[in-house]
Amino acid sequence: MDYVAPTTIEDAVGALSSTPESRVFAGATDLIPQIRSGRPEPGLLVDLKRIERLTAVTEGANAWTIGAAAPTSLLTEDPGFSNQFPGLSEAAGLIGSDQIQNRSSLGGNLCNASPAADSVPAMLVNEARAVVATAGGTRTVGVGEIATGPGRTSLAPGEFIVEFEVDKPPAHSGDAYLRMTPRTEMDIAVVGVGVRITLDADGNCAEARIAVGAVAPTARRVADAEAALVGQPINDDTLAAVARAASAACDPIDDKRGTIAYRKQVTGVLAKRAVTIAAARAAGEDTENAATTNGAH
Ligand SMILES: Cc1cc2nc3c(=O)[nH]c(=O)nc-3n(C[C@H](O)[C@H](O)[C@H](O)COP(=O)(O)OP(=O)(O)OC[C@H]3O[C@@H](n4cnc5c(N)ncnc54)[C@H](O)[C@@H]3O)c2cc1C
């Protein structure tokens, strides 16, 4: 294996086009274990962490820009970011341990294309966009268009994600992310649910975005669960409708970490809880770190 650490996007694109069997990486917290467990070694490893734009997290007037290779610890340690996106910050804070979060990136979490990647449902409900470097410049696509199945993405050979753009939420909005793992630490989700709620002046739901992870080949928005809330108060009846729709949207695997029936049931429960937390945040109520106060880790 050869290794290069370009300092510009153009040099990274050039390096990738020079070697067909090349691969980008950021934290390598997925890549190194995969190579050690016998996956084929790429001919050339292209380290993205020396490119300044890819490791920066910046607040603009209307949106945040998150470098695709920025360590996820930047999203948990910046109060400005976590106050506006508590759910996305919580999701980033659930990836592995402190050590992992000092290396792991949103770009790697998305492009590893694990159905259980924690940041993805939280990015989906915030309608994050991915800026993709190509041989001819850049193109911008919705985060939901990147992963196409377990371990597979829509990126063409030589393409990589430069950064994510996330619009600031409107007033009276809140997001939340909850996951369930069989163990309390260092485990991956058997279910993850991201939610963003915007309330109207009467306290009813003006907009709902709900996404589930780990229960289908890719994380996905659940339109029926969202429709059950829009224009409605958030109460036991609407939460029950959300739970039913979220469970019905699951197409999970059955394995030692959770049966199909268990994953469907837990998805409904977490969807209700995450909606309740996001709505409380939208109403300006104080909620502690949701991911660890609701029994779901
Ligand atoms: C002990 C441990 C615990 C973990 N716990 C969790 C967890 O709780 N939740 C969770 O979701 N994950 C977890 N992970 C997995 C991993 O840490 C995350 O998926 C992390 O976000 C990957 O980021 P990275 O920068 O290290 O990716 P890398 O390993 O650098 O890359 C992963 C993949 O994405 C590609 N890639 C990387 N950056 C880009 C880019 N900008 N554009 C295109 N392709 C790119 C690489 O080619 C590679 O295929 C854990 C891993 C370990 C080792």
Small molecules held by this entry: flavin-adenine dinucleotide
**Beta-strand proportion:** 15-25%
Largest sheet: 5 strands, antiparallel
CATH architectural name of the largest domain: 2-Layer Sandwich
Count of individual domains: 2
Secondary structure tally, helices: 13
Give me the CATH fold name of the largest domain. Uridine Diphospho-n-acetylenolpyruvylglucosamine Reductase, domain 3
- Find the count of extended strands (DSSP E, 2+ residues): 14
Order of helices and strands: EHEHEHEEHHHHHHEEEEEEEEEHHHH
Question: Which CATH class of the largest domain is shown?
Answer: Alpha Beta
* Ends apart, CA distance between termini: 37 Å
